[in-house]
Write a structure and sequence with these properties.
Blueprint: H1 2-5, H2 9-17, H3 24-36, H4 43-50, E1 55-60, H5 66-80, E2 85-90, H6 104-107, E3 113-117, H7 123-132, E4 136-139, E5 148-151, H8 153-166, E6 172-177, H9 187-201, E7 211-213, H10 218-229, E8 237-240, H11 243-255, E9 265-270, E10 281-284, H12 287-302, E11 312-315, E12 318-320, E13 330-331, E14 342-343, H13 344-356, H14 359-365
Parallel strand pairs: 1-2, 1-3, 3-4, 4-5, 5-11, 6-7, 6-8, 8-9, 9-10
Antiparallel strand pairs: 10-12, 13-14
Length: 366
């Protein structure tokens, strides 16, 4: 290539690496020669010489979930603009409450930096990442000393819960608790805590039978919600910790003959790509924007332009009201199973109980 361009081998190397000590005219000659000779630099060889891989490790608890895939998309779009690529490290375990550990072999000599999605590192993992000496950015959770990009999960759940209360709902269920054994995800616990706090502020309590524990998938939520909708008395509104959970709740409601929102309102969080199709009221977060911002922070760190203070970018959320929420519908006092003006969901639950209970018990209840 040096012979074809009429320059030295060292000049070719500097031109291909973008070093400043090469004139634009000479660089153009070298690039033209590279194109003519179909030259492609070996990434492995370049890495050995420069000590840089031009890769960024992205650690995610799940890859096949909409939220995480969308964040990765945002990160990748920003990195590829400057010639970096994503090294995906999926920690998904064999069950929902387990994950793989973050190890040195995942990252050492394979990545120049790490972006961690919603995974609070264990002490040994934090120590490992600190020893590797590469920049770390987190998405979805705040870690001391590392820049982060996130929404305020508690605030988002507060918006969703207050929307339900402002519509007039008092019998409110919650979908999205997880087992206490799950230590690798913070979002479920933050959202659950915020729901309880807002309910308490308004003198309301969600009974255990209206609190759905699931694996944060639509299928898991549908299974648990189906059991709840079979109860004699059901809530007039379900606040779901995510849109995917809300989709499952809506599916279970339809299978039980309940109309959304006439009989039961449903609200989620995220503004999932399918939320508008399902006409779901939700609290919107810009997921891809979080990925793009995390990618930019990482590039600044890799280029030595990191801020003097640790960045904590908290992006805004927005209530998007669609057709899945409305006020609790009142029914006449003489409706089947009703003991006065009550919600349609109560009436449907009471009617179901009346079909199953012996007549004397029904008369005693009346």
């Amino acid at each position: 290539m040096a012979k074809a361009a009429g320059v030295s081998v060292a000049t070719v190397s500097r031109a291909l690496r973008g070093v400043d000590r090469v004139s634009p005219r000479t660089r153009d000659r070298v690039l033209a020669a590279a194109t003519e000779l179909h030259y492609v630099a070996s990434p492995a060889a370049t890495s050995l010489v420069s000590g840089r891989t031009r890769g960024v490790g992205v650690i995610t608890p799940y890859f096949n979930r909409w939220f995480f895939a969308t964040v990765v998309t945002g990160i990748e779009k920003v990195l590829r603009e400057e010639g970096f690529h994503v090294l995906l490290c999926d920690l998904e375990g064999s069950t929902f409450d387990t994950r793989l550990p973050i190890t040195q072999t995942m990252l050492w000599k394979r990545a120049d930096g790490v972006i961690i999605l919603n995974v609070p590192p264990r002490p040994a993992e934090r120590s490992l990442l600190d020893r590797l000496g590469m920049p770390v950015v987190t998405v979805g959770n705040r870690q001391p000393g590392w820049p982060s990009v996130r929404i305020d999960d508690r605030a988002a759940m507060g918006v969703a819960t207050r929307h339900a209360i402002e519509l007039g709902h008092r019998d409110i269920g919650y979908a999205g608790t997880v087992p206490a054994s799950i230590t690798h995800l913070q979002t479920p616990f933050d959202r659950r805590a915020a729901f309880t706090t807002v309910m308490s502020e308004h003198g309301l309590v969600c009974p255990p039978e209206w609190t759905l524990e699931c694996d944060w998938t639509a299928a898991g939520a549908a299974e648990h919600a189906s059991r709840m909708f079979a109860l004699p008395r059901i809530p007039t509104c379900i606040v779901a910790a995510s849109d995917e959970i809300a989709f499952g709740v809506m599916s279970a409601a339809r299978r039980h003959g309940l109309r959304v929102p006439q009989d039961v309102s449903v609200i989620g969080i995220d503004d999932h790509v399918h939320a508008e199709i399902f006409d779901l009221t939700t609290v919107r977060q810009d997921v891809e924007a979080q990925g793009r911002r995390a990618g930019r922070i990482m590039l600044e760190a890799l280029h030595g332009r990191a801020a003097d203070t640790v960045v904590d970018d908290v992006l805004d959320v927005e209530l998007v009201v669609r057709g899945s929420t409305g006020p609790p519908r009142m029914v006449p006092a003489d409706a089947p199973g009703a003991t006065g003006a009550t919600s349609a969901a109560d009436a449907l639950g009471a009617t179901s109980a009346a079909r199953q209970a012996p007549k004397p018990a029904l008369q005693a209840t009346s």
